[in-house]
Protein backbone atom coordinates (compact mmCIF):
# COMPACT_ATOMS: atom_id res chain seq x y z
CA UNK A 1 0.00 0.00 0.00
CA UNK A 2 2.80 2.42 0.93
CA UNK A 3 4.63 2.08 -2.44
CA UNK A 4 1.37 2.86 -4.26
CA UNK A 5 0.74 5.85 -1.99
CA UNK A 6 4.21 7.24 -2.63
CA UNK A 7 4.09 6.63 -6.38
CA UNK A 8 0.56 7.73 -7.19
CA UNK A 9 -0.15 10.32 -4.47
CA UNK A 10 3.07 11.80 -3.11
CA UNK A 11 4.84 11.75 -6.49
CA UNK A 12 2.16 13.74 -8.36
CA UNK A 13 1.81 16.09 -5.37
CA UNK A 14 5.53 16.87 -5.35
CA UNK A 15 5.52 17.42 -9.11
CA UNK A 16 2.50 19.72 -8.85
CA UNK A 17 4.15 21.84 -6.16
CA UNK A 18 7.63 22.13 -7.64
CA UNK A 19 6.75 21.78 -11.33
CA UNK A 20 10.21 20.53 -12.31
CA UNK A 21 11.27 21.19 -15.89
CA UNK A 22 12.21 17.77 -17.24
CA UNK A 23 13.96 17.12 -20.54
CA UNK A 24 14.90 13.88 -22.27
CA UNK A 25 12.66 11.35 -20.52
CA UNK A 26 12.59 9.46 -23.80
CA UNK A 27 16.29 8.72 -23.21
CA UNK A 28 15.47 6.38 -20.31
CA UNK A 29 15.13 2.88 -21.82
CA UNK A 30 11.72 1.37 -21.10
CA UNK A 31 13.22 -1.96 -20.07
CA UNK A 32 16.51 -3.62 -19.31
CA UNK A 33 19.28 -2.56 -16.93
CA UNK A 34 19.88 1.19 -16.72
CA UNK A 35 22.52 2.99 -14.69
CA UNK A 36 21.62 6.61 -13.98
CA UNK A 37 24.70 8.76 -13.37
CA UNK A 38 23.89 12.22 -12.02
CA UNK A 39 25.61 15.29 -10.73
CA UNK A 40 24.95 15.96 -7.06
CA UNK A 41 23.83 19.44 -6.01
CA UNK A 42 21.75 18.83 -2.90
CA UNK A 43 20.63 16.24 -0.35
CA UNK A 44 17.18 16.17 -2.00
CA UNK A 45 18.54 15.18 -5.44
CA UNK A 46 17.59 11.57 -4.80
CA UNK A 47 13.94 12.49 -4.26
CA UNK A 48 13.92 14.62 -7.42
CA UNK A 49 15.28 11.74 -9.50
CA UNK A 50 12.81 9.33 -7.90
CA UNK A 51 9.77 11.44 -8.78
CA UNK A 52 10.84 12.44 -12.30
CA UNK A 53 12.11 9.13 -13.68
CA UNK A 54 9.46 6.98 -15.42
CA UNK A 55 10.86 3.75 -13.95
CA UNK A 56 11.46 2.81 -10.33
CA UNK A 57 14.99 3.81 -9.38
CA UNK A 58 17.06 2.12 -6.70
CA UNK A 59 19.54 4.05 -4.56
CA UNK A 60 21.93 3.28 -1.75
CA UNK A 61 21.18 4.52 1.76
CA UNK A 62 22.85 4.32 5.15
CA UNK A 63 21.88 1.08 6.89
CA UNK A 64 21.18 2.90 10.17
CA UNK A 65 18.18 4.61 8.57
CA UNK A 66 16.53 1.18 8.44
CA UNK A 67 17.15 0.21 12.04
CA UNK A 68 15.17 2.85 13.90
CA UNK A 69 12.81 1.65 16.61
CA UNK A 70 9.25 2.52 17.41
CA UNK A 71 6.52 3.74 15.09
CA UNK A 72 8.65 6.52 13.61
CA UNK A 73 11.59 4.21 12.96
CA UNK A 74 9.43 1.62 11.22
CA UNK A 75 7.70 4.31 9.14
CA UNK A 76 11.03 5.73 7.97
CA UNK A 77 12.38 2.29 7.11
CA UNK A 78 9.22 1.31 5.21
CA UNK A 79 9.15 4.63 3.36
CA UNK A 80 12.78 4.30 2.28
CA UNK A 81 12.16 0.74 1.15
CA UNK A 82 9.10 1.83 -0.85
CA UNK A 83 11.11 4.62 -2.48
CA UNK A 84 13.74 2.16 -3.65
CA UNK A 85 16.52 2.70 -1.13
CA UNK A 86 18.92 -0.18 -0.44
CA UNK A 87 20.54 -0.27 3.01
CA UNK A 88 24.34 -0.54 3.04
CA UNK A 89 26.82 -0.30 5.88
CA UNK A 90 29.21 2.64 5.66
CA UNK A 91 32.54 3.37 7.26
CA UNK A 92 34.08 -0.09 6.88
CA UNK A 93 36.85 -1.21 4.55
CA UNK A 94 34.41 -3.37 2.61
CA UNK A 95 31.68 -0.71 2.34
CA UNK A 96 32.65 0.32 -1.20
CA UNK A 97 32.59 -3.25 -2.45
CA UNK A 98 29.26 -3.88 -0.74
CA UNK A 99 27.79 -0.81 -2.41
CA UNK A 100 28.96 -1.91 -5.85
CA UNK A 101 27.60 -5.40 -5.25
CA UNK A 102 24.19 -3.98 -4.27
CA UNK A 103 24.11 -1.95 -7.47
CA UNK A 104 25.23 -4.91 -9.53
CA UNK A 105 22.37 -7.04 -8.22
CA UNK A 106 19.83 -4.40 -9.24
CA UNK A 107 21.27 -4.07 -12.74
CA UNK A 108 21.65 -7.80 -13.30
CA UNK A 109 17.96 -8.20 -12.46
CA UNK A 110 17.10 -5.70 -15.20
CA UNK A 111 16.40 -2.75 -12.87
CA UNK A 112 17.41 0.89 -12.70
CA UNK A 113 20.16 1.94 -10.32
CA UNK A 114 21.31 5.51 -9.67
CA UNK A 115 24.74 6.67 -8.65
CA UNK A 116 26.49 9.99 -8.05
CA UNK A 117 29.96 9.50 -9.57
CA UNK A 118 31.37 12.49 -7.67
CA UNK A 119 30.83 10.50 -4.48
CA UNK A 120 29.36 13.42 -2.53
CA UNK A 121 27.38 16.56 -3.22
CA UNK A 122 29.17 19.59 -4.60
CA UNK A 123 29.46 22.35 -2.04
CA UNK A 124 30.44 25.05 -4.53
CA UNK A 125 28.29 24.18 -7.55
CA UNK A 126 31.16 22.85 -9.63
CA UNK A 127 31.36 19.37 -11.16
CA UNK A 128 34.17 17.25 -9.77
CA UNK A 129 36.11 14.25 -11.05
CA UNK A 130 34.13 11.03 -11.00
CA UNK A 131 35.03 7.89 -9.08
CA UNK A 132 35.29 4.76 -11.21
CA UNK A 133 32.50 2.81 -9.51
CA UNK A 134 30.12 3.97 -12.24
CA UNK A 135 32.40 2.39 -14.85
CA UNK A 136 32.81 -0.82 -12.85
CA UNK A 137 29.04 -1.27 -12.73
CA UNK A 138 28.46 -0.42 -16.39
CA UNK A 139 31.25 -2.68 -17.64
CA UNK A 140 30.42 -5.67 -15.44
CA UNK A 141 26.67 -5.64 -16.17
CA UNK A 142 26.43 -4.23 -19.68
CA UNK A 143 23.92 -1.64 -18.47
CA UNK A 144 23.32 1.49 -20.49
CA UNK A 145 24.42 4.63 -18.65
CA UNK A 146 22.01 7.57 -18.73
CA UNK A 147 23.76 10.82 -17.72
CA UNK A 148 21.55 13.19 -15.72
CA UNK A 149 22.05 16.86 -14.88
CA UNK A 150 20.18 18.46 -11.99
CA UNK A 151 20.00 22.20 -11.44
CA UNK A 152 18.12 24.31 -8.92
CA UNK A 153 17.85 21.54 -6.33
CA UNK A 154 20.44 23.28 -4.16
CA UNK A 155 17.86 26.00 -3.55
CA UNK A 156 15.13 23.73 -2.15
CA UNK A 157 16.63 23.36 1.30
CA UNK A 158 19.90 25.32 1.70
CA UNK A 159 22.16 24.49 4.64
CA UNK A 160 20.58 25.76 7.82
CA UNK A 161 17.05 25.78 6.42
CA UNK A 162 14.53 23.42 8.02
CA UNK A 163 11.59 24.05 5.71
CA UNK A 164 11.89 23.17 1.98
CA UNK A 165 11.38 26.09 -0.40
CA UNK A 166 9.63 26.12 -3.75
CA UNK A 167 12.13 27.08 -6.45
CA UNK A 168 12.76 26.31 -10.15
CA UNK A 169 14.16 22.81 -10.71
CA UNK A 170 15.49 21.37 -13.94
CA UNK A 171 16.31 17.75 -14.73
CA UNK A 172 17.98 16.74 -17.99
CA UNK A 173 18.25 13.09 -19.05
CA UNK A 174 20.97 12.64 -21.66
CA UNK A 175 21.45 10.15 -24.47
CA UNK A 176 22.25 6.65 -23.12
CA UNK A 177 25.92 5.70 -23.26
CA UNK A 178 26.77 2.20 -24.47
CA UNK A 179 30.12 0.77 -23.40
CA UNK A 180 29.71 -2.69 -24.89
CA UNK A 181 32.82 -2.01 -26.99
CA UNK A 182 34.81 -2.65 -23.81
CA UNK A 183 33.21 -6.03 -23.08
CA UNK A 184 35.55 -8.25 -21.09
CA UNK A 185 37.85 -5.36 -20.12
CA UNK A 186 36.20 -4.34 -16.84
CA UNK A 187 39.33 -5.33 -14.89
CA UNK A 188 41.39 -2.65 -16.65
CA UNK A 189 41.86 0.44 -14.49
CA UNK A 190 42.67 2.49 -17.61
CA UNK A 191 39.38 1.46 -19.25
CA UNK A 192 37.42 2.21 -16.08
CA UNK A 193 39.00 5.65 -15.92
CA UNK A 194 38.24 6.32 -19.58
CA UNK A 195 34.60 5.24 -19.21
CA UNK A 196 34.16 7.34 -16.07
CA UNK A 197 35.61 10.40 -17.78
CA UNK A 198 33.24 9.91 -20.72
CA UNK A 199 30.28 9.75 -18.33
CA UNK A 200 31.43 12.88 -16.51
CA UNK A 201 31.87 14.75 -19.78
CA UNK A 202 28.29 13.84 -20.76
CA UNK A 203 27.03 15.19 -17.42
CA UNK A 204 29.12 18.32 -17.93
CA UNK A 205 27.60 18.89 -21.37
CA UNK A 206 24.11 18.66 -19.88
CA UNK A 207 24.73 20.75 -16.76
CA UNK A 208 27.06 23.46 -18.04
CA UNK A 209 28.89 23.42 -14.71
CA UNK A 210 32.52 24.39 -14.28
CA UNK A 211 34.59 21.19 -14.20
CA UNK A 212 37.29 20.46 -11.64
CA UNK A 213 39.61 17.55 -12.42
CA UNK A 214 40.13 16.55 -8.81
CA UNK A 215 37.99 14.55 -6.40
CA UNK A 216 35.67 16.55 -4.18
CA UNK A 217 36.60 16.38 -0.52
CA UNK A 218 33.83 14.59 1.35
CA UNK A 219 32.08 16.97 3.77
CA UNK A 220 31.50 16.18 7.41
CA UNK A 221 28.85 13.51 8.09
CA UNK A 222 26.25 16.09 9.02
CA UNK A 223 26.70 18.04 5.78
CA UNK A 224 26.44 15.15 3.31
From TrEMBL:
SUPFAM superfamilies: Glycerol-3-phosphate (1)-acyltransferase
InterPro entries according to UniProt: Plipid/glycerol_acylTrfase
GO molecular function list: acyltransferase activity
Keywords, in A-Z order: Acyltransferase, Transferase
All residue ranges annotated as the Phospholipid/glycerol acyltransferase domain in the record: 34-153
UniProt keyword annotation of Metal-binding present: no
SMART domains: PlsC
Pfam families: Acyltransferase
Protein name per UniProt: Lysophospholipid acyltransferase family protein
Annotated organism of origin: Amycolatopsis rhabdoformis
Organism lineage string: Bacteria, Bacillati, Actinomycetota, Actinomycetes, Pseudonocardiales
